[in-house]
Design goal:
Radius of gyration: 18 Å
Helix content: 40-55%
Structural class: alpha/beta
CATH superfamily: Protein of unknown function UPF0759
Largest sheet: 6 strands, parallel
CATH class: Alpha Beta
CATH topology: TIM Barrel
Distance between the termini: 32 Å
Strand content: 5-15%
Number of domains: 1
């Protein structure tokens, strides 16, 4: 079992620590975090040179949690497209990976569950997977959700837990919060584990203290899962992600009592805070 902490991306124009430290943005990021959401593959796949640079970082114990291309999950092509083959070839070049994310669109409902079942059953067993659903059908605490969870358990696939409660509790008084509330799913949080790995996406205020009522229950649950031998992947988001690294470090410290590289990172940053 292991705890993997990270952010939704590995670079941001307002992350000053990446400007003040030598090395590539990814290698600098990897000094403080051991995983990242690979959102970039959702939009486009890398060329061979970029893929090799990512693989070199992975060889040092860093784990990417790549997302399937949207041509597969959102355009409805599933295995029947070139992006699926290219994506699988990309995954095969990594010595180790975090869960490969299957993020489904808001419109994906109970009527398409059979299509998902067929897709999961044919995926290569070489990798771990985690599925994110956003339609309320899968939060009904009834036959649809039970069938969905049972299917994931049978395939050894995780259910992505996207906690947006703190985001929707925030006042909509900045463009970033308004944008986040318009784009992120407002769905119930059902804390379930369907595999030996758990992937949690958490979005909240930049100030860790303001997250207390939302994040504190996670601390005990994650510690429990770790004691059961599960691998936990926890990704910290803020509305504009400027403070996502600090939130991730604060979360890690709350869970383990240790913030990886926190003192070192603080030395590279202005006195007023992370950024």
């Amino acid at each position: 079992m292991a705890l993997f902490m990270g952010c939704p991306m590995w670079q941001h124009p307002d992350w000053l620590f990446q400007k003040q430290m030598s090395g590539s943005k990814l290698s600098t990021y990897a000094q403080f975090f051991n995983t990242v959401e690979g959102n970039t593959t959702f939009y486009s796949l890398p060329n061979d040179d970029i893929a090799k640079s990512w693989q070199a970082i992975a060889q040092m114990g860093f784990q990417f949690s790549f997302k399937f291309p949207r041509a597969v999950t959102h355009d409805g092509h599933w295995q029947n497209c070139a992006d699926y083959e290219r994506f699988m070839t990309l995954l095969g070049g990594f010595s180790q990976l975090g869960p490969v994310q299957i993020q489904l669109p808001n419109r994906f409902d109970r009527n398409q569950l059979g299509q998902l079942a067929g897709f999961l059953a044919q995926l290569p067993a070489d990798f771990r997977y985690s599925v994110e659903v956003r339609h309320l059908d899968f939060f009904d605490k009834n036959i649809t959700e039970q069938t969905f969870n049972r299917m994931l358990q049978q395939e050894g696939v995780g259910r992505t837990l996207f906690d947006t409660r703190a985001l929707f509790h925030m006042p909509a008084d900045t463009p970033e919060v308004i944008d986040g509330q318009q784009k992120k799913p407002r769905v119930p949080l059902h804390v379930v584990s369907t595999a030996q790995h758990v992937l949690v996406r958490y979005i909240g205020p930049a100030d860790f203290a303001a997250n207390e009522q939302w994040f504190t229950p996670w601390v005990g649950k994650i510690q429990q899962w770790l004691a059961q031998g599960k691998d936990i992947y926890l990704f910290a988001h803020t509305p504009d992600n400027v403070m996502a690294p600090q939130l991730a470090l604060d979360m890690q410290q709350a869970i383990t009592g240790i913030g990886k590289g926190q003192e070192t990172l603080a030395l590279a940053l202005p006195q007023q805070g992370l950024f």
